[in-house]
Design brief:
Elements lengths: L2 E7 L5 H8 L5 E6 L3 H13 L8 H23 L4 E5 L19 E5 L2 H12 L14 H9 L7 H17 L4 E5 H6 L1 H11 L43 H4 L2 H10 L1 H7 L6
Parallel strand pairs: 1-3, 1-4, 2-3, 4-5
Length: about 270
């Protein structure tokens, strides 16, 4: 493995589609939902709980910690593939930034976002019918359904990632050379340009992808790890995904979303607030 990069973002943002497309490149291996952030979590917990660690010089401990984790990740991915470029895809990495900065200074981070109104509608039409939800998710009151979906303890799992996002945004502003923010709408509308931007960002030669024949995943992508029994079906052909909210939300509902998540729109979709 020559280089390790990361893809992260909110649910229902086409991160799986981007991953499958990039995996067509013979130099690039992209994971499905990747479990390796748990290594970071467990290592952090061991250091906090292990009395022996407290006797070590802090500078040396940090050096050992960094090498242990990075070499572990390197070994894990080299057991999966012999491709030189590995991209680990999971939104769980949002919880462990900037820890990963110390692993490899040349690693890059791709953050994918989408208009929250369309994420909400995607959940309502696709996710909800697969999950036995508490009563508040079936409320006829739009505001209550939004609150239920974006609550920290929501079964949608959207709430926790929304709450982690401001910290990631701070790092984006502090380290702009390390992050590429992709809006899902732009990716599906201008995929060739976005893919070109991705390759330029990770300092790889541009690769011409067949967007009419997206490759299969090495193993089935499945959201059961997030208590959501939904397979990630990826269409063979990439098509422009038009915003659904204009035809599926009332002006009042749209205004409520813009107001409730004004911070999000200011950062990623400022034109929607004009």
């Amino acid at each position: 493995m020559e280089r390790l990069h990361y893809i992260m973002g909110l649910p229902r943002t086409c991160s799986t589609v981007l991953s499958r497309i990039l995996s067509e490149n013979p130099r690039v291996f992209v994971t499905n939902t990747c479990p390796t952030p748990y290594f970071v979590h467990n290592c952090n917990q061991a250091i906090q709980e292990g009395l022996e660690f407290s006797t070590m010089d802090m500078k040396l401990l940090n050096k050992c910690y960094t090498q242990f984790l990075y070499q572990g990740l390197k070994g894990w991915f080299e057991a999966l593939t012999d491709k030189p470029i590995v991209i680990s895809k999971t939104r769980m990495w949002m919880s462990y930034l900037p820890h990963t900065f110390s692993f490899d200074s040349k690693s890059k981070y791709i953050l994918i976002v989408r208009d929250l109104r369309d994420i909400f509608l995607s959940y309502e039409t696709i996710v909800w019918k697969h999950i036995h939800l508490p009563q508040e998710h079936h409320s006829k009151v739009f505001e209550k359904r939004v609150e239920a979906m974006t609550d920290y303890n929501s079964v949608s799992k959207l709430g926790p990632w929304l709450m982690r996002l401001p910290r990631v945004v701070e790092l984006v502003h502090k380290h702009p050379d390390k992050f590429l923010v992709i809006r899902q709408e732009e990716f599906t509308f201008q995929p060739k340009q976005v893919l070109k931007d991705v390759y330029e960002f990770i300092e790889e030669k541009n690769f011409v992808h067949n967007l009419d024949n997206i490759p299969d995943a090495p193993y089935l992508e499945n959201d059961t790890v997030y208590q959501q029994p939904i397979s990630h079906y990826v269409r063979r052909k990439l098509e422009n995904i038009k915003p659904r909210w204009p035809d599926n939300m009332t002006p009042e509902e749209s205004k409520y979303m813009l107001s409730k998540f004004e911070w999000y729109y200011k950062i990623f979709y400022p034109e929607e607030l004009e």
